[in-house]
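[step 3/7] inverse_fold.run input=structure_tokens len=277
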């Protein structure tokens, strides 16, 4: 596999299966997380709690932490500053879903010699486990060429979208549409229950009709499909993704804020746990 050693920062529902896929493919992989190593089962021996120790082992780091605040803490924080130590990675891949404006700002803040790539992914944990994620890449051609073999291990569909932040721009626009399908599917399944319609038959009809959408079509495979809203769960991450796209357009007068933007956020924040017969 060559000399590249890969670090996964943020070994949660997405990061850990990504790390395992890479390790199974023969890559040397290390993990970093704020949680104790004992929580990572068979991967525990590959977890490095110390940020400096983690970054010194890896020349490519893929960040899969939750949001911009955790990304900033990971990179620059006193206790988790992986680009502040004596040995830092030469490639940083951001696979969290963040605002494209934040990604462009990182380009200005990273130390010289660290190449930034934005590579957000889509597909939920079940596709991370099967290595069939979709990746949307932004970065320089030479760095992307070096990374493509990694993405091929973790993903099925790899899209090169252009320069840094274009992968993230693609992802947040995609996730806006995904968020509307989450809200709409919750809504119609609640209506079906109230109207006495079999929810499972409705889902079957939708799957082959105009109501088809990713959330409804894969509702039994998506780990978090039945969750109601909490700022700390995956529906809260969907809320964060919508806020990221609104941040991206906030500097563009040609794309004004729309009533749907506010309604979508309000609807996400009032989602109750989903009941399916």
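[step 3/7] decode complete -> sequence:
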């Amino acid at each position: 596999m060559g000399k590249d050693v890969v670090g996964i920062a943020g070994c949660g529902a997405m990061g850990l299966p990504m790390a395992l896929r890479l390790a199974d493919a023969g890559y040397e992989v290390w993990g970093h997380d704020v949680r104790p190593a004992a929580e990572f089962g068979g991967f525990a021996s590959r977890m490095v709690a110390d940020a400096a120790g983690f970054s010194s082992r890896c020349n490519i780091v893929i960040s899969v932490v939750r949001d911009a605040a955790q990304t900033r803490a990971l990179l620059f924080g006193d206790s988790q500053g992986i680009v502040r130590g004596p040995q830092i990675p030469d490639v940083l891949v951001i696979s969290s879903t963040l605002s494209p404006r934040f990604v462009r700002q990182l380009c200005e803040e990273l130390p010289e010699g660290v190449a930034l790539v934005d590579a957000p992914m889509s597909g939920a944990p079940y596709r991370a486990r099967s290595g069939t994620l979709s990746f949307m890449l932004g970065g320089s051609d030479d760095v992307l060429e070096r990374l493509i073999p990694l993405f091929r291990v973790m993903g099925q569909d790899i899209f090169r979208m252009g320069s840094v932040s274009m992968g993230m721009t693609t992802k947040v626009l995609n996730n806006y549409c995904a968020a509307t399908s989450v809200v709409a599917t919750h809504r119609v399944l609640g209506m079906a229950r109230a109207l006495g319609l079999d929810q499972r038959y409705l889902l079957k009809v939708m799957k082959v009709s105009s109501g088809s959408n990713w959330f409804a079509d894969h509702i039994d495979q998506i780990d978090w499909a039945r969750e109601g809203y909490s700022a700390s769960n995956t529906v809260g991450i969907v809320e964060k993704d919508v806020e990221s796209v609104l941040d991206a357009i906030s500097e563009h007068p040609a794309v004004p804020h729309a009533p749907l933007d506010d309604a979508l956020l309000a609807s996400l924040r009032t989602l109750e746990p989903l009941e399916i017969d």
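[step 4/7] annotate
Residues 259 and 274 are 25 Å apart (CA to CA).
The chain has two domains: 5-163, 169-269.
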